[in-house]
Structure formats: structure tokens, C-alpha cells
Amino acid sequence: MTRFFAAGLFVLWGCLAATAQTAPQLASPSPVASAPSNTGVQDLLQSQSALIVASSRQTIEPAIDAIAESGLAQVQAVLQLWQDKKLVLRTSDHVFFRAEKNADGRYDLIDLDSGAMVGVADKGDLKLIKPNSGVRAMIGTALVRFQLEDPDLSIRQAAVTSIGRDPSAAALMPLRASIASETDEDLLALKRRAERLLTIRFDTDPKARVGAIEEMSADLGVDVRATLNPLLQTELQIHSSGAPTGANVAAERRIGRGIGAEDAYAALVARDLAPAALGADEIRSALEANIADGRVAGIPLAQLSDPAMRQQAYDGLVAAGLARPAPTREEMAEAVAGYRYFDIYEESSLAVTDAAETALARINRQVGFNQAADLTLDAMSLASIYFLAAIGLAITFGVMGVINMAHGEFIMMGAYTGYVVQLFISDHTLSILVAIPAAFAVTFGAGIAMERLVIRWLYNRPLETLLATFGISIALQQLAKNIFGTQARPLTAPGWLDGAWIINDVVSISYIRIAIFVLALGFLGLLLFIIRRTRLGLETRAVTQNRGMAASMGINPDRVNMLTFGLGSGIAGIAGVAIGLFAKVTSELGNDYIVQSFMTVVVGGVGSIWGTLAGAVMIGFSQKGIEWLNPSNTLAAQTYMIVLIIIFIQFRPRGIVALRGRAAGD
Question: Given 1.10.357, 1.20.140, 3.40.50, 1.10.3470, which CATH number is that of 368-489+507-665?
Fold first, then answer.
């Protein structure tokens, strides 16, 4: 026995010695690469090696979960390497590394646990782990839990954005866990909001979901509505008796109320609960399949062009058992009456659907109110544009009685002046500040020249004035084409006017429109000051009220006409700069505003600043209201607006604010 025991010890000792000698050879197949430490994340990867190498979406989930839930410090980095296709496997011993190509064209092997370089390998000795898009998405979901608590704020923000873009039940608990440790107030608010939305969709506790729904019922965000709407999705279910047991029934459809008889029968056919009605294709196929000796059921083919003969032939096939009979109307009605039709919520919890329905009703009311506010802002913005475009025309038309068809071209000249200024001044803020007085000066001078050279000879001759200014309009357009070409020119707004003031997901207005609104208010105040507080304004009002009496008091009507025409033209130039910030600057720019300008002046009251403002508001709100009622056809909306204005003028021909004094009777 002792001899056998000693022999056994000798054999055991030999085996241990052999293992000790061969182990280094297995762990170090290359003389330039040592083995990594066999603790930590490497052991974890080795335990899931087969699944990782296979990288199949159907089987990889346990491996990802095991790595993500291990609690090891290196897990986030390893998952990131795996997702980025930077994880490699040394084929000789199936050990995982991070590989970096060196200057020799070989690869430095970085240990995943220690981060130290532990060897060098050729490309042929390594296998790159390349997960497909589905696996990368699953890895990304696992990474979210680490990214949500990453020290880098930008990474945490990106993680929350990723959750919002692709919400999933797996992200709910990590997101909740990260809220307590979040230090950034803005990101904390985003996390809480995202957590509420995920709770509504994925939480298993109906009470928690109802609480989240009630909490978000005042939020007008599109994502909130996108989260609530699926909770109220229904499917039509058909039952031969009462309502299905345990189902969350939204409503029962009655024949003629909620569902038509034809739709009900089609639903029965789709569920194989009733035979399908005969279609023309089925009849034709049956006839073609049973042609014999040039006849079908004894009827010659030549006669089958007659629908009655085709039906007779098909009835013959039915009688012979060669085609299926069509269900009669009585049979179809009986089939429909034999079932009950229910809309069943896809969401099983009644409390959740009730809360979602209440919340959506509240949100929709608020959305409607905010849509009205947004429409009002749009209308005010459009009214300010029309006011700027028309105020110069109101001055010239009201004081001088001149129908200036070239007023739109003064707007175009102002826009082109702004463009030329920006060619020399690259700072867009400074260029706009320079362009406004420059446009006024250019169009003021052009207006005075036009009045001195043409208009002064045509006073009290409206038809000749209209034709002359129309010709000048065409000439100015052609001149602009010759100078600037037909291509639209950019008039770039300053950077601080980019974007929009976003109040919520429903109400917003661009900063350019706000600036134009402020500019319009500024000009309203300036013109009121000029008209009421300056000598020019006094003389202008005097000429407007009674031209002869003003001349007898020492006022020069010709001088007033010249300065007034120049002032109106200069204001049109400033309007051109403002309009050019959001519209295309072309030679036809004025054509888009001349009609609206005349309508604004006529509706508001000729010669009245307040009337021009009232007319701009009326036209702006009318146009936006009609466009809201008929959003698919803007041209039709403008046509309807013109019709409304014509009707309005029939009842108030002098406009909203009519002139007072003797001029009112002229």
C-alpha cells in the first residue's frame, strides 16, 4: 500500500510539473506579447466570449446584461470600445484587447483592466469584433446607465437626448437612479421630464403612470402628446355575444352609428367570419377558367361583353358547382346583425386610459388657445409689414392725391441699397444700421426727383399720373435687372436676429418679425411726432385739409408736395430694408407689396396715419384668418380677402378713419 501511495504521489508531482512548464507557452504564444491580468473585466469577457464573437442580436442580450451589471469600473470603456468596433480578440489565445496601430504597421495591445500596453501583434493575429447595427443599438442602451452619471456634462446631456430619441423600458430605472445625483439644474429638469414620459409609457404600476400623466397634463410639448396618443389607440374587435371579458372597452359601435353596414361586413370578411362579396375580378377569373368550345355555361364568348350575360354565365357555373355563390343582401345583413362591434383600447389599464383621455382633452384646449395666440402674433407681424410698406404711400396719396404705381419700386430700391451697403460693410449689424439711413436718403432723393420731373406737371390729372408712374415702375424694374441681374440677392440679417422666440411648442415668432414690428411702432411714433409737432407736419395737415386756404396763409403747396413725396418715398426705402431681411431681393420685390399697400391705405382711410395702421391690422388679421381656414391654397385666401375688402368699402367708402374738414368732401 505504501508503495502504491508513493507511486501515486510521484505521478501527481510529474503532472503538476508538466502543467507548470506548458502553461506559459499557452498564455504567451508570441514572444512580444505578454498575457494580460486574469482578473476583472477580462474574466467577464472570457465568460461571455462565445456570445461576443458571434455578435448575434438574437443571443447577445445576456452577454451585454452580464457586462453592464457587473459593477466593474472598466465596463463603460469596454462597452464603448465594443460599440465603436475597436475591441479585438487575439486568435491564438482568445484574449480581448484594445488595439492601436503603431508606426510599424503592427498593433499595440492595451490591457482592458490595467490600461497598460502588454504586447504587439500583427493584423492577421487579431480578430476585430464587429457588432451589427442591432447589437450596437443594444450596447448603446446598456451604455446609457453609465452615461447618465458620467462626470462630463455633455455626455450626460447626450444620453438624455438619446433616450428622448429612442425611448425604451430599459432606460427608465437608470434614468430614475441618475436624478438624485444630477447637479446641473437645466439637465435635472430634462431628466425629470424624460423620466415622467418613460413612466407613462413603460412603468408597470398603473398608479405611477396615472400620476405621471396628471403631472404632464399641463405640458404642451409635442413629445407629451406623442406619448399620450398611443395610450388611446384602439382596435376593432368583433364578438358574437357581449363585450369581451377583462378588455378595456373604449366604445361599442352600432350599425349606422359608428360603423356602416358595408364596413361591418368587410370587417367580418377580413376575420373569416363571413364569405366575401363577389368582385369583378373573381367573376372574370371564374369565367376564364371555365371556357369550353368557345362558351361559358352554354353562353357564347361574344355575348359576355354584356354585364347581364356575364352574370347569367356565372350563375350557370354556380349551379354546376364550378364557382362559389355570391352572398345575398339578406345574408350579408343577417351576418352583420349576428355580431357586436367594440373598440378595445390597446392599453389594458382603464385608469391609465381615463387619465390619458382627460389629460389630452386639457392639452388640446390649451393647444387651441395657444394656436390662436400664435395666429395673432403672425397677423400682427404681417400687419406691421403692411404698415411699413403702406405708410409712405398713405402720406403721398393722402396729401397729394397722387396714385403712385412706382411705390413698390421704392421699396425695391431700399432693399437693393441695403444689399450694396453689405458689400462694403461685412459686419451685418453695422451694415443694417448704415443701410437704414442710406436707403432713406437714396429713395428720398429719387422721390423728390420723380416729383419735380414728372408728378408736378400732372396734378389733378389722375389717369395721366397713374400711367406715368406705372411706366416709371417698369423702367425702374428694368434698370434694377440691368444693374443687379435677375438672380435674387441676399440681404443678411445680423446674427442676433437669427432664430425665433419660442414660447412653447405651439407659439413662436422669429426675431426678424419682432424687429420689424418694433420698427413699425417706431415709425408710427416718429410720423405722429412729425405730423403733430413739426412745422412740416403742420403745413402738411393744412394742405391736406384745404389746399387753397393753406396757400393763402403763406404755405407753399409745391414745396410741401415735394417734401411730402420725398418723405413717403424715403419711408418706402426703409421698409425695403426691413422686408429684404426675410424676402428675396429681386427687381420684382415691389410687385408683392404694391397691391397690399393700396388696399391698406384705402381700407384704413386716405391721408390718415391711424387709418393706415387700422387698415394694416384689418388686412393682416383677415389674411391670416382666411389662410388658417384654407391653409392649402394661399392664392385663394388672397382672393377671398380682396372680396371682403370690396364688400367692406361698399359700406364704408371713406375707410376706417375718414378725413375731417373740407378735404373730406373732395
Answer: 1.10.3470
